[in-house]
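Sharing a chain and its predicted structure for anyone who wants a worked example. Both blocks are below, sequence first, C-alpha cells second.
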Amino acid sequence: EGSIFDRGFLSGYNAWTWAVVVNSALNGLAISAILKYADNIARIFAHAASMVLTMLISIALFDEVMTPQVVIAVVVVGTSTLQYNLKPEHLF
C-alpha cells in the first residue's frame, strides 16, 4: 500500500472521480459568473431551479415517484421567480 508520497496524490482516481472534480470546478466557475453579472438572489433562484430540474430528470430517468412535495416545489420556485422578475405594475 505505501504512503501518498510513494503513490502520488492522484493515485486511485478513476473516471467517476475526475467527473466529480470537473463538475465541481465548472460549478464554481458558473457561480462566480452568476455573482459577477447578477445578484445573490439570482443565484438562489438558479440553485432552486437546478434542484427542481434534477428532481424532474430523476423522475424521468430513474422512475422516481412524483410526490405532492415536488409539485409544490415546482410551483413555488416558478411563481417566486416570476414575481421577482416582473415589474411591479405587472403583478396585479
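Comments welcome. The chain has a mean pLDDT of 84.
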